[in-house]
Amino acid sequence: MTRPNMFIVHVSDAPKSARFYGDLFAMEPVFEAPRFISFELGGGVQLALWSGAAEDLSGPRTSEVCLNLDGAPASVDARYEEWKAKGVTIVEEPQDAVFGRTFVAADPDGNLIRVAPFD
């Protein structure tokens, strides 16, 4: 069975967004072109940032990049404080959901990044 192996986040400026994601997740790109930059996530799966898509991607954003952490809820609250101190935009403050402690941040283009515990 073939499985997805790349998740593409549409951004307005791929190099700027790559610096944001690289700093946020402490990772370096594995491929760089002027409008497409990707990061290896492990197991052959990549996160790509693409500014080469159609000009009008202004529709609703319905997906999230999710970072699952061990040691929740303390680790989720600690990551929230770390990102807040970096000036990352927080769109949903830490709260307890049915799956555990979580919060949501946004990248410079408004793409959502959720932090949550491992199930």
Automatic annotation (TrEMBL):
Which part of the chain is the VOC domain? 3-118
Q: Which domain of life is it from?
A: Bacteria
Gene3D superfamilies recorded for this chain? 3.30.720.110, 3.30.720.120
Against Pfam families, the record matches this protein to: Glyoxalase
Name of the protein in question = Glyoxalase
Taxonomic source organism: Streptomyces koyangensis
